[in-house]
């Protein structure tokens, strides 16, 4: 379907289903239960899941296919965000021009940075991209304050010109980002029994774009261009000896990857019109590397899973405070309760980094292929059990009958 | 051939699924029935406390959180009631807010605008918070205030001292009890003139974000009005931890006063570096070299230790004040946590009470009605003397304290002494003062 192979179609359909049903999947616990703390189905976090999914998909195109580890991808995310917010300030609150401009700006950025950085490979390439990203961060933080508003971050205000829109709404508020009048922040809550599910306009726009971005990524993976990129990863020297110049290919994929990051940045700004320099900081660049490796570098769905995993930890685990812990362990005798809370305390709340670090170590040590490898192992184990049961040949695929 | 038929059917089927999925959100476009964002319907009301738990302002954040917990306890009738008993408005009776029990959620701003907004968004969207409070970094406060305006909830700013919070970035849904950079400068200038004379050369080190800029601008204007000369102003990144490379050039600049427009961990480090470089023992232009820290807090004084002795600054509130409100607050905070509260804790506690009181008086949680109840509200008994919430910019006006690092502290908390209480009239300014112009409150947004 859509020019995809059987296996890719399955993955694609799974991604579509996951993306469209996320409001249900992410809110598995009833609102009044104590486990509601772990629900992630609110618009802001769902939007972050798919937006960082796009970011990681793009990063994986570069890292997964060519093996070039860019440590400065956040620069494109940040550049995209600034471009989008400026579009909201100057042109209109419609997200389409903002997203387009963010991709273009990030693409141009990527051409410049890629042209210089790709003259080296391996660790030198990583350091060069890191240096460019930190340079962008510092520029955005102080030197370019008139454009970026420094540490406070660029925000939309009541006195922006907005040529194709209004500076302020009729009742004196700041207009909100929209898609031809459909407000991004609008969401509807549907209550079914004790559960309540949030359907957000902004989320579905992001999800639709993520599905599109995923599809394009699959096509690139399976194209002759993708094959060439893999060749670069396996042995660049040999490629040169056969008379092929690898650099145009690496630059092309670097720019595509940068545009994905710009798209993610533009979407972030569309959902919440603010762009701060910390989006460009090296920690943000490191985060996307973690996402990709955690999910499974070079796999199709891995980066999306990794992005979801990290954002979940950042937003859900960081909110568990001592009060919440005490309410969980309230059934224990006082001394034991306090002891357990003290024991758990360093791993939740502001200690979420620690938990994430431990998980990352475990994944890298035991599942070098990331979460995807974990899934494959489970699937293999199940399949083995099944094939022993009915003795059939390995007719494994449970794809829909396409 | 059959393969292509299957593909076509698949295309249609997937198209239908995708179409239905995309159409899904538009089916439910009818708005929810509530009149404003997160209208509390059950027996509880949720407040969101968004403070820095990591980063350079983590100490302040931790103390703010303690104050919020204490305020919630007092609102729900626990503890000794604290400042509820001394507050001039008598609507709070320990039965929560409008009879609803107060619950709260917390979040970590990481002293980053992005993270702070994500955290505040999750409080509003997931936990149903009807008011967001917190801060400790004006950049974050400005960003979160903007978010609250868009989302239609009240933002009760915590520790934020930039002129911009109630100046060019002011918002109808945002309110600030804390004083600001202009007030600090206005209060500090006469004392500096008295102590150090009118012929001084000042060198500024400034935290590079909205607070630092406005603090530096204010203190420069106030000292230049005295006759001081400004030699240089150097911007330092907020995340900086070692300031030696910024201190060294001060020695050769010909300046005889160093103004540290730093707060929290920044100030602790820069002051320590400055003292290590021997700045305080130097004689320049025939005068003793002096250091000034415009915005002071006890937590910073504790962090900087011996180095703060004799150094002037301003503060919003100090635990050694002897009015009834301050005494009641210090007592209940001390009983619960074993040490006196900081100014950050004080302003957060007060903001929570002010919000609760405004809701009681308005008879509704609707942000527009709460805002109207706060605008132009005059009150007393919360530790700062008679105070006004000005309607024009949602800024509180009250006395400002000028403090000095104590030479002979009697305890580990007794680090600052109040030199002068600058009366409110001396720090007041017009709403359209140039340092505060360019902004617009807009209209209040109840969301939904």
UniProtKB/TrEMBL annotation, chain A:
Family annotation (CDD domains): TM_PBP1_LivM_like
A Pfam family reported for this protein in Swiss-Prot or TrEMBL: BPD_transp_2
Segments crossing the lipid bilayer: 12-29, 49-71, 91-116, 123-144, 201-221, 248-268, 288-313, 325-348, 354-374
Subcellular location: Cell membrane
Any one GO molecular-function label of the UniProt entry: branched-chain amino acid transmembrane transporter activity
One Gene Ontology cellular component: plasma membrane
Superkingdom to which the source organism belongs: Bacteria
UniProt keyword terms in alphabetical order: Cell membrane, Membrane, Transmembrane, Transmembrane helix
Membrane-topology descriptor: Multi-pass membrane protein
Listed InterPro entries: ABC_transp_permease, LivM-like
Keyword Protein biosynthesis applies: no
Protein name (Swiss-Prot/TrEMBL): Amino acid/amide ABC transporter membrane protein 2, HAAT family (TC 3.A.1.4.-)
Organism: Alloyangia pacifica
Lineage of producing organism: Bacteria, Pseudomonadati, Pseudomonadota, Alphaproteobacteria, Rhodobacterales
UniProtKB/TrEMBL annotation, chain B:
Leucine-binding protein domain span: 44-406
Keywords, ordered alphabetically: Amino-acid transport, Signal, Transport
Domain of life: Bacteria
One GO term of the biological process aspect: amino acid transport
Protein name from the UniProt record: Amino acid/amide ABC transporter substrate-binding protein, HAAT family
Protein family membership: Belongs to the leucine-binding protein family.
Organism: Alloyangia pacifica
InterPro entries according to UniProt: BCAA_transport (IPR051010), Leu-bd (IPR028081), Peripla_BP_I (IPR028082), TAT_signal (IPR006311)
Pfam annotation, one family: Peripla_BP_6
PANTHER family in UniProt: LEUCINE-SPECIFIC-BINDING PROTEIN, PERIPLASMIC BINDING PROTEIN OF ABC TRANSPORTER FOR NATURAL AMINO ACIDS
Signal peptide: 1-35
């Amino acid at each position: 379907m859509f020019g995809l192979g059987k296996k890719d179609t399955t993955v694609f359909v799974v991604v579509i289903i996951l993306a469209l049903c996320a409001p249900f999947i992410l809110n598995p616990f009833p609102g009044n239960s104590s486990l509601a703390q772990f629900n992630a189905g609110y618009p802001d976090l769902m939007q972050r899941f798919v937006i960082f999914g796009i970011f990681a998909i793009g990063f994986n195109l570069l890292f997964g296919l060519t093996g070039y580890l860019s440590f400065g991808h956040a620069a494109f995310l940040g550049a995209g965000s600034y471009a989008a917010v400026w579009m909201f300030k100057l042109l209109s609150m419609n997200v389409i021009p903002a997203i387009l401009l963010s991709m273009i700006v990030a693409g141009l950025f990527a051409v410049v940075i890629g042209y210089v950085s790709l003259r080296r490979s391996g660790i030198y390439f990583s350091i060069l991209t890191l240096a460019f990203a930190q340079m962008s961060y510092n520029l955005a933080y102080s030197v370019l304050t008139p454009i970026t508003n420094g540490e406070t971050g660029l925000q939309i205000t009541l006195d922006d010109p907005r040529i194709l829109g209004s500076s302020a709404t009729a009742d004196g508020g700041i207009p909100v980002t929209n898609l031809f009048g459909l407000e991004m922040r609008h969401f509807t809550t549907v209550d079914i029994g004790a559960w309540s599910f949030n359907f957000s306009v902004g989320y579905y726009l992001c999800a639709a774009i993520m599905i599109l971005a995923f599809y394009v990524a699959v096509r690139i993976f399976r194209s002759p261009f993708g094959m060439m990129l893999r060749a670069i990863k396996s042995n660049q020297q040999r490629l040169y000896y056969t008379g092929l110049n690898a650099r145009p290919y690496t630059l092309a994929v670097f720019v595509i990857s940068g545009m994905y990051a710009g798209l993610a940045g533009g979407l972030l700004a569309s959902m919440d019109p603010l762009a701060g320099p910390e989006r460009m900081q090296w920690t943000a660049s490191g985060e996307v590397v973690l996402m990709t490796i955690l999910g499974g570098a070079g796999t199709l769905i891995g980066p999306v899973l990794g992005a979801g995993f990290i954002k979940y930890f950042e937003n859900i685990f960081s909110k568990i405070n001592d009060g919440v812990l005490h309410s969980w362990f309230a059934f224990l005798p006082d001394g034991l309760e306090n002891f357990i809370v003290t024991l758990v305390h360093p791993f939740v709340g502001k200690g979420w980094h620690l938990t994430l670090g431990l998980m990352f170590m475990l994944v890298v040590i035991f599942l070098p292929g990331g979460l995807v490898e974990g899934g494959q192992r489970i699937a293999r184990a199940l399949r083995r059990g099944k094939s022993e049961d009915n003795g059939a040949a390995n007719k494994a695929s449970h794809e829909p009958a396409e | 051939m059959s393969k292509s038929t299957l593909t076509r059917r698949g295309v249609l089927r997937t198209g239908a699924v995708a179409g239905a999925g995309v159409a899904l959100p538009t089916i439910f476009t009818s708005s929810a029935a509530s009149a404003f964002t997160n209208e509390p319907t059950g027996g509880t009301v949720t407040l969101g406390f968004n403070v820095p738990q990591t980063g350079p302002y983590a100490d302040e954040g931790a103390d703010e959180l303690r104050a919020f917990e204490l305020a919630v306890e007092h609102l729900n009738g626990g503890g000794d009631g604290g400042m509820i008993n001394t507050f001039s408005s008598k609507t709070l009776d320990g039965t929560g807010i409008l009879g609803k029990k107060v619950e709260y959620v917390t979040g970590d701003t990481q002293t980053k605008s992005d993270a702070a907004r994500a955290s505040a968004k999750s409080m509003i969207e997931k936990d149903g918070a009807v008011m967001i409070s917190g801060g400790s970094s004006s950049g974050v406060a400005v960003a979160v205030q903007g978010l609250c305006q868009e989302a239609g909830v009240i933002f009760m700013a915590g520790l934020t001292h930039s002129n911009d919070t109630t100046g060019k970035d002011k918002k109808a849904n945002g309110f600030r009890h804390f004083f600001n950079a202009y007030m600090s400068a206005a209060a500090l200038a006469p004392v500096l003139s008295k102590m150090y004379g009118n012929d001084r050369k000042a060198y500024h080190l400034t935290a590079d974000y909205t607070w630092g800029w406005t603090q530096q601008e204010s203190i420069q204007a106030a000292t230049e009005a005295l006759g001081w000369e400004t030699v240089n102003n150097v911007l330092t990144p907020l995340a900086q931890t070692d300031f030696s490379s910024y201190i060294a050039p001060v020695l050769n600049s010909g300046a005889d006063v160093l103004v540290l427009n730093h707060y929290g961990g920044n100030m602790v480090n820069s002051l320590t570096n400055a003292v290590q470089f021997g700045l305080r023992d130097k004689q320049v232009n025939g005068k003793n070299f002096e250091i000034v820290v415009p915005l002071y807090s006890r937590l910073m004084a504790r962090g900087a230790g011996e180095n703060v002795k004799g150094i002037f600054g301003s503060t919003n509130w100090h635990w050694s004040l002897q009015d009834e409100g301050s005494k009641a607050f210090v007592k209940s905070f001390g009983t619960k946590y074993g040490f006196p509260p900081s100014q950050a804790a004080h302003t957060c506690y007060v903001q929570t009470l002010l919000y609760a009181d405004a809701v009681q008086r308005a008879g509704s949680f609707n942000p527009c009605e709460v805002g109207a109840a706060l605008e132009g509200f005059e009150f007393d008994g919360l530790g700062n003397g008679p105070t006004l919430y000005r309607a024009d910019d949602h800024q509180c006006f009250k006395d400002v304290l000028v403090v000095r690092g104590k030479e002979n502290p009697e305890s580990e908390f007794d680090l600052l002494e109040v030199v002068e209480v600058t009366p409110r009239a001396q720090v007041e300014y017009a709403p359209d003062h140039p340092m505060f112009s360019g902004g617009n409150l807009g209209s209040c947004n109840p969301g939904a």
